[in-house]
Amino acid sequence: MLVVEDNATILSVGKYFLELEGFDVIVAEDGRLGLETALRESPDVIVSDVNMPGMSGVEMVKALRRDSRTANIRVLMLTSEASVDTEAEGLAAGADDYILKPVEPRRLAARVKALLARSRHVTA
Q: What is the mean pLDDT of residues 86-110?
């Protein structure tokens, strides 16, 4: 699993809790590094912030979907913006799920597990 987040505290706490849930977690600090890491590591799922400097999470998802090597990676977007427009933009870009911050760690883990289960069902 790849977690893409520009806030160091959120990144380290998220990584910690996801690892407690049994996930192998790699991290990237912005969308550009997230895209590079996804191309190099081919994670099953990406959890990404929406608003980041440089390449946003939405721009990263669009780039992932354009590349055949990353087009099928499941993506869950995180944001602190409780806006229907922001959520719709992320989903239209190709995100598979969307969740508001602050997120309860168990809820995040459950959403990730659901994405992985759907991915296995589709590819099985």
A: 90
The domain 2-123 is placed in CATH, from the list 3.40.50.10800, 3.30.70.580, 3.40.50.2300, 1.10.220.10, at 3.40.50.2300
Verdict on whether the full-model pTM lies above 0.85: yes
- First CA to last CA across the chain, in angstroms? 20
For residue 124, pLDDT beyond 80: no
Mean pLDDT confidence for 109-122 = 83
